[in-house]
Amino acid sequence: MPQIGSFTLLLGLALSVYAFAAGLFAIVRNDDRLSETARRAGIAVFLAVTAASGILVYAAFSNDFSVAYILHHSNRALPGPYKFAALWSGQEGSLLFWCWLLAAYGLILRLRHKADTRLVAHASMIISAVQIFFLVLVNFAAHPFALVTGAVAADGNGLNPLLQYPEMVIHPPMLYLGYVGMTVPFCFALAALIMKYPGEKWIHITRRWTMVGWLFLTCGIFLGSYWAYRVLGWGGWWGWDPVENASLLPWLTGTAFLHSVMMQEKRGMMKVWNMWLIFSTFLLAIFGTFLTRSGVVSSVHAFAESNIGPYFVYFLALTFATCMFFYVRNRSHLESEHKLESLISRESSFLFNNVLLLVSAFAVLWGTLFPVLSEWVTGHKVTVGPPFFNKVNIPIALFLLLLTALGPLLAWRRTSTESLRKNFAIPAVIAVAVGVALVAMGYIKPWVDMSYFYSLMTIMLSVLVAATIGSEFIRGGLVIARHNDSNIFHGMYLLTRRNTRRYGGYIVHVGVIVTMIGFAGVAFYQNTEQELGFGDKMSIGPYTLVCRSYTQDDKPNYSSEWAILDIYKGGKQITTMYPEQRFYKASGQPATIVANRSTIMEDLYLVYTGKNPENGRPIIKAHLNPLVWWIWAGAHLILVGTIIALVPNMQAKRKKPSAGDGQARAPADETSESRAAVEAGGD
Amino acid sequence: MKIDRKIFHRWAAGLLLASALLLMGASGDPTGQRFDRLGHNLMCQCGCGQVLLECNHVGCSTSEEMRKEMKLAMARGDSDDAVLAGFVGKYGPTVLSAPTHTGFNRVAWIMPVVIFIAALGAVVLVVRAWKKRNPKDPTNSGGTSGGTPVEELDEFRRRAREETSL
């Protein structure tokens, strides 16, 4: 079977080369038949790479340890879902998985070619070029079907214990769907630039595909955070690790694009900016992959150091050169139709939003690469850890929150300061009142530490955003409710259905502020550690932990020991928790299974850190982490909002004139509804 | 909904006064805060790649030892700088979780600020240049209401609100 796998990978590469070359010739010669063969070859690439991926998964399930990748990433006792997840758990397998996802995106793109045959033909050719790069990697640099030399081992080395969690089965696919997904908008944007695409259709297609990629990337980032929180056992969810940062970079530029693209669609502005944002997003997705896999920066999440780094450097250089060449050649096609008229306008709020997002992306990239730069310049390596990233990025995030609040209040073209002040007054008063109330009730003491001050500011600005978005929903909902004789909630539902992009976007913003409130809780995290014998107690915050017992177990894949702790709050037992530590036999590595009790106010997070070797008593580390629940709730809202924004708008039905209304009434209603749409929707 | 400007100003002044009064009653836990702050300025040296107070290695003796060293230095009355310098002397500069504000390390801190200021300045300059270049260009207006003054636009929006009963 491994030989068949190798053959399918070579076949996939040959088909990709054909799809690219035939696609190129078809475009140059304007040959539709040749273009169709290129399209079909592209579809066949999907079949070839699917076969290769299927064969690797089969090798994992059939315990074929003659394949080096399976030997190093699986073992006989590994549960089925993790054998499947082994596909993306190592360098070679994950690159094959990347190839498969790219082929799948290519398949969708090619099946939907009738949307615009010529544009898709160009995009298809570009995606084939990207596919060639990744297939070259898996065929010649990181071969997933490489065979072991010598005798075949009876059992494998097993999967890294940190990866043996349900979250890890879905986190990498989501992240890769995001990374790879950014290839499609890149292909469409470059295609539009190459062919000087007339009209704005390409930007609509690009925006929708970017949203799809952004949705998966967001999902992947949050799942990664959730995994770090639930699995790594350090009580946090984001460590500013280079690999985490690598996922954040394309997310930031993608977010900037999703905002600035509105200026191009609405007013024909910022075409060059948008083009380069999409190029940057793709380049950063590839650059992030390079960082993760080349060993350039050290990370606890990175793949083993390998020799594939130079391949990525050449590919990045070639891609950048291609983008620059076509930009210089065809830049006249990207001239803006309008100019910015005022600093107080929706356009300039998007522009400032873009600047902040890009500065944040720069700061993250700069901090990630500074240790390398420092070593190169001074000969000494330095650490750039959370304090640096927090200090630089928190003020930027607060500015972004302020812009998120201001954005909905600003009109396109120009807004008078008087109008802004009038619309801003009530939300601002509400936000300040909440801040004062929090301080007055003693929840936050901003004078004690800068982190408390930031928390207070985050919550106040989040309230400000919520108030402005809430007023938008209420105002629009009331108009539609009055027009349809229904209640405000139905009105808000219809409002959202009629302008999914705008109101879906607002829901995303609500998700962002809910997440930010969760982030604000970090300042109040506390923890304590204690050895616990039978009946011993430890306290943290309002909780008392009583050790009922501790025990151990042995399973085929791992042995484990855990404590049984009764949790009391206000003198009443509220639950029992079981922090556990496992020892995986195949890999010989320990792992913690965190016990977590999550409520809307706080998480009680217990880690079995080990046992006293003298008396066998467990040592328990207890964390009390306020507001973590809000982070995951916000993530759900962001995903829901993005999905809503992807759904096409529902057309508003005209109200049928009743007998009493008379014909003359209809135009008035229509006018009123149009005004309502302008007022409440208008994207 | 209209808000009287005077009432708004009184509200704002009242809220600011209340905030100031609350801020004056400041209090805190200096020792715990200091330990937490210093502990987050150091990296654990066990190889976990994490901040000292967040090391998650099972039974990590290195982080335990480092915490003890930090408590001892604090008990001795060492200043923050002296505590950190002691760790740098023992473990090397990578023990610090962020670049210092000296020598080449300054560049790490300066660059994001420079980029931020330059980017904001560039945006303001570009917008002003656009405004100067074509102050009355009818194509700037989006077509239908070329050159409409901002007050007039506000008036249109106000009327739209009134006519939709809001």
Protein described:
- The complex is a heterodimer of chains A (683) and B (166).
- Chain A has 683 residues and is α+β, with helices and mostly antiparallel strands.
- In chain A, 63% of the residues lie in helices and 11% in strands.
- Among the domains of chain A are: 1-160, no CATH class; 416-499 and 649-654 and 663-680, no CATH class; 524-629, Sandwich (Tick-borne Encephalitis virus Glycoprotein, domain 1), CATH 2.60.98.
- In chain A, helix 16 packs antiparallel against helix 20 (665-680).
- By secondary structure, chain B is mostly helical.
- Chain B has 2 domains: 30-95, Helicase, Ruva Protein, domain 3 (Orthogonal Bundle), CATH 1.10.8; 106-163.
- Helices cover 61% and strands 0% of the residues of chain B.
- Chain B is built from 6 helices and no strands.
- Chain B has helices spanning 5-24, 30-39, 61-76, 80-91, 105-133, 150-163.
- Residues 19-29 and 137-146 of chain B have low confidence and may be disordered.
- Chains A and B meet through helix 13, helix 14, helix 15, helix 16 and strand 9 of A and helix 1, helix 5 and helix 6 of B.
